[in-house]
Amino acid sequence: LGYMRRELGYELPDDLTRFRAFRRTRGAYTYLRLAGSTTTMAPDRLANATSGTTVLDLTRVRFDASQTRPWLTYLEAARTKVKSVQLMSAPLGFLEALVTPADLHDRVSVRSFALSYNCARCETDTIEMIDVASNLEQLVEGTAPASRCPSCQSLLVATLSPELVGVIRSLPARERDPVLDNMLE
Fold first, then answer.
1. d(C-alpha 77, C-alpha 116), whole Å
2. How far apart are CA 131 and CA 145, in angstroms?
3. In this structure, what are the phi and psi dihedrals at residue 181, rounded to the nearest 5 degrees?
4. Residue 162: enclosing H or E segment and its boundaries?
5. Cα Dmax for the chain
6. How far apart are CA 24 and CA 16, in angstroms?
7. Number of neighbouring beta carbons within 10 Å of residue 15
């Protein structure tokens, strides 16, 4: 499959009926790249793979906002056994649906998340990945970082729901950890 993707440019759509996790560890750090739907994940198995400081790469995760039980069960179990759980590349709507401000005060932090912007001039929507560490001051004020339209270069307007504003105002500062940052590069 890797050969087909790399050499032939062949892409398979994500299998939403299966949940998969790729795990890599280095000392006290764990990296988990998740793929598939959170409704089909086994929270106990994922919690067993979580240890130390864990970074969850959510780039390929799909979720249903009405079925949060598996995710919440995982998060509850993971918090009891880790130093921290860091969410990376959270998809659009994930923070509003599956993360509460209370979660962010108990060993959970967000490294980056997707945010929707709209261009009033050319009427296009753009999704930007927001790095929390570089934009923390703006985010805790409840505002999104400035961004420009890739087409017409005018300023974009962020789409911020009240739920998302509540979450981003509660984002904790992330401690600088060169070893973890090096592992994620």
1. 31
2. 10
3. -60, -40
4. helix 162-169
5. 50
6. 23
7. 12
- pTM for the model stands at 0.86
What type of residue is 81?
A: K
Could you tell me the pLDDT band of residue 15, with boundaries at 50, 70 and 90? low
Between the alpha carbon of residue 181 and those of residues 27, 40, 86, 90, 120, the distances in Å are 14, 30, 12, 17, 36
Cα–Cα distance measured from residue 17 to residue 41, given in angstroms and rounded to the nearest whole number: 10
What CA–CA distance (Å, rounded) separates 54 from 96? 21
How many C-beta atoms surround the C-beta of residue 77 within 10 A? 16
Nearest of 156, 134, 159, 154 to residue 146 by alpha carbon? 156
Task: Report percent pLDDT > 70 for the chain.
Answer: 95
Per-residue confidence (pLDDT) for residue 12, from 0 to 100: 58
Angle at CA 52, nearest 5°, toward 27 and 25?
A: 40
